[in-house]
Amino acid sequence: AQKVTQAQTEISVVEKEDVTLDCVYETRDTTYYLFWYKQPPSGELVFLIRRNSFDEQNEISGRYSWNFQKSTSSFNFTITASQVVDSAVYFCALSAGTGNQFYFGTGTSLTVIP
Amino acid sequence: EAGVAQSPRYKIIEKRQSVAFWCNPISGHATLYWYQQILGQGPKLLIQFQNNGVVDDSQLPKDRFSAERLKGVDSTLKIQPAKLEDSAVYLCASSFLRAGGVTDTQYFGPGTRLTVL
User: Fold this and answer.
1) Residue A11 in this model has a pLDDT that exceeds 90
2) Closest Cβ–Cβ partner in A44, A52, A98 for B109
3) How many CB atoms lie within 10 A of CB B24?
4) Which residue of A27, A39, A102, B93 could cross-link B108, Cys pair, CB 3.0 to 4.6 Å?
5) Phi (first) and psi of residue A51, to 5 degrees
6) Is residue B1 pLDDT above 70, yes or no?
7) Average pLDDT score over chain A
8) Given CB atoms, is B107 within the 8 Å cutoff of chain A?
9) Does B105 touch chain A (CB under 8 A)?
10) Contact criterion met (CB < 8 Å) for A100 and B31
11) Cβ-defined contact of A107 to B42 (cutoff 8 Å)
12) CA A104/CA B22 separation, integer angstroms
């Protein structure tokens, strides 16, 4: 069975602080894909990153960075020097098995206080 | 490149009425998905199409929900009759179909917020 756990329901930080959003996944497949999406108040899910199970290299994109560790089944997301525009709900998702189906976590609501 | 289009953006109906949502995927994307997102939860897959065929509809409440993608491009999701618990955001997503079963990124539309009174 495939499962994604985002244990942090809500996080509040003051602007310019760093924040890490946790994502733990479960799958028995050796080939799988992990994703992060941002859902601002407008409601649309915005794609942030896609990572396959064979690529454990960490990735940095501007203020965003991702730490993929297969040993702990985690794919954590860090925002450096947070800004008010980062306020949104962030979803981690797993795709494994056949059919390209996505399994979403319950999301972490991030509020950045000016 | 145009993104996934959905309409309407908002809909308010009374219980037992019917409602339909429309989705036009990104051009060239063979796979189309409908999700239901209840407030405070992650999206839940209702149905997945590949071209005009259904890949997975195991979580679609078939007694009241139906969906079609007749020409393999745009799609319609219908609820008839609606219940109070159907109040949610209905998201449409599409993805490119890669060879060999490689998972591709799903791109989402803005969603339709349904309120059932």
Assistant:
1) yes
2) A44
3) 18
4) B93
5) -135, 135
6) no
7) 93
8) yes
9) yes
10) yes
11) yes
12) 23
